[in-house]
Amino acid sequence: MPLPGPDTRVVELRVPGLVGTSGESLLDSVDTVEVDGDGTGRIVRPSDRLRRPAPGPVLQALGRSMPRTLEGYLWSRMTSGGAAKATWALLFPFSLANVSHWMLPPVPDRRVSAALSMVCRALLRIAAILLTILLVAQLAVVSLDLFAAQCLAAGSGCLTSAPSWLRDVPGLRVTAGLLPLLAVAGVLFGVARASWRVDDPGPPRTQGLGGGLSDTADTAAARCVHVSAALVTPALLLLGGPLQMPGDPVRATLWVATLAVLGVSVLAVTTRAKRFVPAPLRPVLMALAAAITITTAVVSAPLPEALPGTNPTIELVGGGLLAVCLLFALVLVPTALLTRGDWAHLPHRLRPWLGGWAAAPVLTLACLLGGGFGAGLAVALRELVGGDALLLPQGYELITMLWGGGLVVAVVLAVVAIVGSALRRVRRGVLAVVRLLQGDDARTGDTTTASSAWARAAWERKYLHRLVLTFACLMSAGALALVAARLTTGPAPEWLAPLSALGVLTLGALAAGLLRAVYTAATGNQRSRHLGAFTDLASFWPRAAHPVVPPSYALKVVPELADRVRSHLSEPNTRVVLAGYHVGGLLTVLAAARLAEELSDEELERVASSPPVPRCSGDTSARSPRCSRPADWPGCAAGSTAGGAGCAAARTPSAAARRRGATRSPANSSSRRLSEGRQHRRCRTGRTRPDRRARAGR
Question: Which end of the chain has the lower number of beta carbons within 10 A, N or C?
Fold first, then answer.
């Protein structure tokens, strides 16, 4: 690298981490001013009292001073704040199902392993669409059955303040119950269609983020089939459920059409959805699903006092979802074992979490959360408006028992966490870093508080994700045990009644917590630390298993960071440093990897990244990581902590890996295929870049 000249200018571009931060705290400035961006992704600089961009502190290097410009990229508006983003809190189970896709081990090139990997991904997509059907079915229980059929029935004594014409006029009850469900389907379509627009007038240089991280493959087709399944699900409750065909010819025809739409939707997500449902057929399928449900509502008016299809629909969808999760976990075991040779040579933090099998409990936790949210909402509303006189599906009894036991498990794990962090504090004492930060004159109380905070944070970093995994596994085992007991012995035994009562309180708390999360997301940018961390980490990954998730902010942040760096490099004497922490570090690594594919050698010499980005290597050893493709980073969805903190650092190659990749063959580096990753892709063709350490050694 040539030494910087006297007119060299350094630009430091900072990217914040998990929970949203302000420009002042990011740039250590009293005030900041926005100098670029579209309002969602903002480039800010320190400012003076007149709101003019101010220079940053002078950089001391090579025995002289160099001017430095501080900039920050703020992206917190993409994940919090605003009434529209408040609906994303309702989709947290969908986001967990989508994250589980990125926790799977990479697809190898061996035939058996690749076939098993494809089966795992197909089962994951089936579970995702069943989760959508379960959500809409549970909302239909509240809207169509609990509210329209039971509460608004003549002489029910429920909602006495409702106008009498709403009960007496034929068709109004079913209309009042169906309109919210159609609105929910519209919300799902809108969320799945939303995406962040890159503030770049030029043509895109790289598809998505590169390395397979993109949501343009099957998103449109998957969105169509998920919305179609959501539109047609309420018809099942009105037609008596999926297990028994109605005797009336018209209702029987609608019943067959409903099952046909659901079958097409499930089959489409099992295969390549964009091929099974091409673009011209997608609006036709959604219109057909809406027409079936509306026609079913017309022929079902007036509604009976209780819908006969509620219980079989909820039990069949819930049981099918648990069966798919169990099959997914079983198939994932040999898949993870057969793909072990592809990542066993990597450092510990670069390996998939539990070899990739952690995707199974995460998917099960997503399903249990989805079922718990719906059941908690129904139980809470029943107690609010009518009490025990209103009927709920019998399957909700199992859910209440399960979450009652889950509360007991959560309390035990919380006690373990408190005791573990306290023991770590006692064993480690006052850390040297605390003494350094607090100083020698610090008060004893401040030192004790700081030491406790450091011990708690260190313990959470090491063990909190394991507690979450333990909770998911125990809840999964409990769900399977309750379903097996229900199928073999009938109703649950009486001694589980206290767990059911405790589960009602737990599910009510879940519903209240969900509503609070929605309110917090709608009214402010700041969120609780752990909830914000999980939300930001889940929203990082592009849509893969489930299309109805918040759009990936990385698909906007990374291209705009790269464009900003390119704009600074247009000045020949400018050098750019990309600096980030937590998820911000991962975003800077992705931006640096993108720039490595697009910049010339001379331009790339003037770019630095913290953490550093690995380079392509021509080493022929099968144990050498060859390229820094994001899709080849297995298990990053799990992160190295419960909130994903340190995920970027976990992707940084070890010193041994960098030494193995320190040299490259200039003759055929463009023709050697990568051994790591889901697909064989070539390193950059036409150019080879000797490692900077090797050149420095020469």
Answer: C
